[in-house]
Specification:
LeuE-type; single chain; 11 helices; transmembrane
C-alpha cells in the first residue's frame, strides 16, 4: 500500500468516525434489534448495513451514484422507494405499540431470524440515497492519483464499515445488559413507539427532501 493511499484512508477515517457516532437511522435499527431480538440479530442487522455501505461505496467509485446525483428522476425514484420502506416499517411498529400486540411463536421465530435482520439492515441502507450522496460528495477528496477508483472506493467504504462495526458493537453489548428490562411488554411497546416514530420521521424527511 502506497503512502498516498494510506494517508487517504487515515484521513477519511477521521471524517467517517465522526459521521458514524452521530445518531441516525442505522443506529436506530441496530439498537432496536439489540434490545428486542438479541445480539445475533443486532449484529446481523449491522452487517446488513455494512454490506449496503460497500455497495454504495462501489457505486460511488464507479459512477453509479453520479447518475443518481445527476438524474433527478433516478434520485427521486430511489428516494420515494426508500421513504415508503421506512414509513412501512415505522407505521408497523407504531401499530404494534398501540395495540400491544403479542406475536405468536411462529412469527417470533421468523422475526428473530438473522437473515431477516440482515436484510432489514441492508434494505435500510441501500434504499437511503443520502448514503450514496455522502460518498459521491466526499470520495473525490480521498482518491489518490493513479489508483483504481473501484478498489479505492471499496477500501474507503471498508474503513467506514470497520468503524461502524466497532461503534455498533459497543451499542449492542451495552444494550444487551439492559435487554431484560427492555423485554418487558410495556417497555417494548414504548421502544416500538419511539423507534417507529424515528423511522416515520426519517421517511417523511426523505420523502420531502428535494
Amino acid at each position: 500500500m502506497s503512502d498516498s493511499v494510506l494517508h487517504a484512508l487515515l484521513s477519511f477515517a477521521l471524517v467517517a468516525g465522526l459521521i458514524t457516532i452521530i445518531p441516525g437511522l442505522d443506529t436506530a435499527v441496530v439498537l432496536r434489534s439489540a434490545l428486542t431480538l438479541g445480539r445475533r440479530q443486532a449484529f446481523a442487522a449491522a452487517f446488513g448495513i455494512n454490506a449496503g455501505a460497500l455497495v454504495w461505496g462501489a457505486a460511488a467509485a464507479t459512477g453509479v451514484s453520479v447518475l443518481l446525483t445527476a438524474s433527478y428522476a433516478a434520485y427521486t425514484g430511489l428516494r420515494v422507494v426508500g421513504a415508503v420502506y421506512l414509513l412501512w416499517m415505522g407505521i408497523g411498529m407504531l401499530r404494534a405499540a398501540r395495540r400491544g400486540e403479542v406475536r405468536g411463536a411462529a412469527e417470533a421465530v421468523v422475526d428473530a431470524g438473522v437473515v431477516r435482520a440482515f436484510l432489514r439492515g441492508a434494505g435500510t441502507n441501500l434504499l437511503n440515497p443520502k448514503v450514496g450522496a455522502f460518498y459521491i460528495a466526499i470520495f473525490p477528496q480521498f482518491m489518490p492519483a493513479h489508483v483504481s477508483h473501484l478498489v479505492m472506493g471499496l477500501e474507503l467504504a471498508g474503513v467506514h464499515d470497520a468503524l461502524a462495526l466497532v461503534w455498533f458493537s459497543v451499542l449492542i453489548f451495552c444494550a444487551h445488559r439492559a435487554r431484560a428490562w427492555f423485554a418487558k411488554r410495556r417497555v417494548k411497546r414504548a421502544l416500538d413507539a419511539v423507534t417507529g416514530t424515528v423511522l416515520v420521521g426519517f421517511g417523511v424527511e426523505l420523502a420531502l427532501r428535494g
